[in-house]
């Protein structure tokens, strides 16, 4: 088994649920050099997160943004942490509802996702800026 | 260290939170051949998910289904994605609230779960069909 | 690649979101012996969980506790599972909203967290007692 690790930076995304499978695959051609293992993708932030969800109909991503805004609304009277803007505390709540990492099986040089699965970067700030990720791949190298 | 990977298919489950620890262990006897490592279980779907929760009282599973239906209700007027049935968009929301994978320490040939922990397949469609999982085990083999 | 695994026990925490990054690092000096890999931290409980979130302003942790108590309130009339106290079923719901494990990239002997990221133990019982974790580190050892 071998381990490969790299840090990557994704350019700023709009607030919401952004499909990034293709962008990540381009930035990590090393995936192709492994025959079996895991790709671990970690985001170094607490207001932009990762999840896996449907890769096809964009209305799923729109509905997720609408509904997560209901699960973690802005401007609740009981929020103590509001010095960084009304989008900040909801972003922290969404951070713990979603995940700081996704790990995906790697099979024959490909992410072994289901037909309808894609990787999302969930940007919860209005102006989130570029986001830093650490990608760690471990498994058997192709011969 | 070695890596072992296999794809398995679980027969259709009822909508709700289904305990599958025993079923998975039977399908993955390879767990017994490792002395220390991680078992990574990944579901290739966006409307059936995985989580760990209590393995004893079935009322916990019933209450989880009831409460997640409140957190992600059907037929909300703001849903845009409703062409696949009223259970579909709530399933996608639950997908991101729960997880597409669980990873569990493997110790001395056994899943090193707590006394009360079990693996759940959370089926969020009314008629979800069989579900595909990818199991990846990595660690030291027993000598 | 090598794998290292140990079980650790954390002393009882107050109900709420507790920052434990420093405590974990002290208990796992083995992290320093790896050059690249993953640290997988697993909690063997279904009413105390793990997540990553902001490591600075304590008001974030207070607001998370307040808001998760709204997402999974006590004493709902539809709960069937209430024999273990009013804090028990909400704890199970939070268990599946949060996570039984976090996995963090390890780089040059350090947890490769973002500037503002810390590891939280989320204690959801009023009197939760000590909590057991399994830490698994895998990757390349330093030379």
Question: Can you give keywords for this protein?
Answer:
homotrimer; 3-stranded antiparallel β-sheet
How would you characterize this protein structure?
The structure is a homotrimer of 143-residue chains. Chain A has 143 residues and is α+β, with helices and mostly antiparallel strands. Chain A is 22% helix and 40% strand. Chain A has three helices and eight strands. Chain A has helices spanning 21-27, 58-71, 88-97, and strands at 2-10, 16-19, 34-43, 48-54, 101-107, 110-111, 117-123, 131-141. In chain A, strands 1-8-3-5-6 form a five-stranded antiparallel β-sheet, with no helix packed on it. In chain A, strands 2-7-4 form a three-stranded antiparallel β-sheet. The longest helix of chain A has 14 residues, at 58-71. The first copy, chain A, is elongated. In chain A, 50% of the residues are buried. The model of chain A has no long low-confidence stretch (mean pLDDT 97). Chains in contact: A-B, A-C, B-C. Chain A binds chain B through residues 1, 36-38, 51-54, 57, 59-60, 62-64, 66-68, 71, 97-99, 102-105, 107, 112-117, 120, 122, 138-140, and chain B through 1-3, 5, 40, 42-46, 71-72, 76, 78-81, 83, 89, 92-93, 95-97, 99-101, 103, 132, 134, 136, 138.
């Amino acid at each position: 088994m071998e381990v490969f690790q790299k840090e990557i930076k994704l350019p700023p995304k709009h607030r919401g649920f952004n499909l990034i499978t293709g962008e990540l695959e381009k930035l990590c051609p090393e995936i192709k050099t492994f025959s079996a293992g895991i790709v671990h993708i970690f985001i170094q932030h607490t207001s932009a997160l990762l999840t896996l969800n449907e890769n096809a109909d964009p209305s799923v991503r729109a509905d997720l943004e609408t509904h997560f805004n209901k699960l973690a609304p802005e401007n609740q009277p009981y929020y103590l942490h509001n010095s960084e803007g009304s989008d900040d505390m909801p972003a922290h709540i969404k951070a713990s509802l979603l995940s700081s990492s996704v790990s995906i099986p790697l099979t024959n040089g490909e992410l072994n996702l289901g037909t309808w699965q894609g990787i999302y970067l969930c940007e919860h700030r209005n102006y989130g800026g570029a986001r830093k990720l650490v990608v760690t791949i471990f498994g058997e190298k192709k011969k």
